[in-house]
Amino acid sequence: MLQATAIASQPVAFVLPAGKGAAAHARSAVACSSCCLQGVCLPCGLTERDLDRFDELAAAKRRVTRGSFLYREGDTFEYLYAVRSGAFKTVGVSHHGEEKITAFHLAGELLGLEAISAGRYGYSAVALEDSQVCAIPFAALETLSLAVPILQHQLFRTISGDISRDQGLMLLLGSMSAEQRLAAFLLSLSRRYQRLGFAADRFVLRMTREEIGNYLGLTLETVSRLFSRFQKDGLIAVRQREVELREAARLREIVG
Amino acid sequence: MLQATAIASQPVAFVLPAGKGAAAHARSAVACSSCCLQGVCLPCGLTERDLDRFDELAAAKRRVTRGSFLYREGDTFEYLYAVRSGAFKTVGVSHHGEEKITAFHLAGELLGLEAISAGRYGYSAVALEDSQVCAIPFAALETLSLAVPILQHQLFRTISGDISRDQGLMLLLGSMSAEQRLAAFLLSLSRRYQRLGFAADRFVLRMTREEIGNYLGLTLETVSRLFSRFQKDGLIAVRQREVELREAARLREIVG
DNA sequence: CGCAATGTTGATAACAATCAAGCTCGGTGG
DNA sequence: CCACCGAGCTTGATTGTTATCAACATTGCG
After folding, report:
1. What is the pLDDT of residues A152-173, one digit of tens each?
2. How far is the C-alpha of B51 from the C-alpha of B34, rounded, in Å?
3. CB contact, 8 Å: A100 with chain B?
């Protein structure tokens, strides 16, 4: 049984940008225009003018400490969240109280997209480490999208991208062996870290074996055994949460 | 190994609405305004005037015979397709040439959403029976969405809904037993037929046991055995592809 | 230092896959 | 009209992968 490490919602720290409200809309450290995720985040591709308008929307930042909830399943949907730093898991509660992780979200990725259709968050979002997010009020985002075609397009693309990602995972869960699942998982993380500008072959897992297993539809023991086997076979080097992909090509072979 | 029953693309029959081009834009039998799927399809909620504009967009209908492809993985993305009648499966090819069904699509559901982000269809769409779709050029749809806020909202909702559906399936594939998967599958079909105005407890499967198994991550033998067991236990009555849910409540119990 | 959380490894068991045989139904040709 | 054929389905026997149960190691933290 998997449990969030902290059940009580932490008091939420909202971090407002220094320049907020200033006529010149000075570039604060937290503005999109000076954010290191510019190339990968939602507003990517906007003109400077439009970026400023978007900045105002997404001005509210929020800190979330490790183990606490960003939002809970069933909460009324109001914000999309862009992960600025840190990492999250989204967790659905299945029937008998067991939790099922539906996704991990790294920096530059959006949270809450599944809530648009129902008006309520379909899953709970829990921080895997101390994190920071930009809160984007969705109603205002929709309005802005009507005036900024590129933003609308970007939104469609982003939401659609989520579908692709999910369907990829379904393929994984529905037809892969335990070995293939873990290999695919490691390669996916590698790609995503690379996109963020980090090394592709060396990263630190943000989640426990149990969480990986839960996500992949395996038990933590199986995950642990596979890490050991992959290491024995020279595919990777693991030491706790540090992972080094030594033979990404062979991992890809395993996946197919 | 699963194969599309017809490999060659059929010559495509485009069906143009009779009233197309007529100044008065007379209500043709295929116009959205006279379509029985009005309540569940994409343009639901539009004013009459906006509906007309949408109608022009989605004027092109297309017949797809059983077993033939609506589009293929890798094709350049141009159209979203709304299923008018019939049913489809979307199929991804995994590595060693095996096929994996990522979704079934009934009337009133959209096809091609996953292609928006990549600009190419991520999966192939194959008709499970003789079907008809509305072809909606996405670029024009985006443009219209800028002018019709409700349509934009509807699109966001629809795409987001797809994410929810997928994540539900991931939950299913990742953490359910074979028994739970099949029960969940039957209940899902039941709900979707009901949404279309059909009986919830009695329907005809559009797909083979093999396709069900493929979709659920099970073998066809396991699916067959489960159908037999469910019948023996009085949960359902099956005769070939005809299914009657006798104890939906107990099926729900099985799922959790 | 000691405790709790996390991770590893081994033994056993259960579930679903695989292999195999035969059945049912609908279509086709003799 | 009937016999045959093949696709789809059912059922049984066996195997293999992964879950489960269990014990122990490691790490980080109070």
Report:
1. 999 999 989 888 888 877 877 8
2. 11
3. yes
Gyration radius of chain B over CA positions: 19
Query: Start-end ranges of CATH 2.60.120.10 in chain B?
Result: 13-167
For residue B248, what is the enclosing H or E element?
helix B248-255
Residue ranges matching CATH 1.10.10.10 in chain A: 176-255
Looking across all nucleic acid strands, the nucleotide with the smallest C1' to CA distance from residue A5 is C5
Task: Give the range among A7-21, A44-58, A185-199 with minimum mean pLDDT.
Answer: A7-21
* pTM beyond 0.90, yes or no: no
Largest CA distance in chain B: 61
Other C-beta atoms closer than 10 Å to the C-beta of B134 total 26
Name the fold adopted by B13-167: Jelly Rolls (2.60.120)
Strand residue runs (E) in B16-116: 61-64, 69-71, 79-85, 88-94, 98-105, 110-111
* Cα angle A33-A34-A40, degrees, rounded to a multiple of 5: 70
- The length of chain A, given as a count of residues: 256
What is residue A24's predicted lDDT score, i.e. its pLDDT? 45
- What the block records as the tokens of A26 is 């000075």
Question: With a 7 Å cutoff on the CB, does A221 touch strand D?
Answer: yes
CATH number, span A176-255: 1.10.10.10
Question: How far does B107 lie from chain A, in Å, by closest CA?
Answer: 19
CB B23 within 8 A of CB B9: no
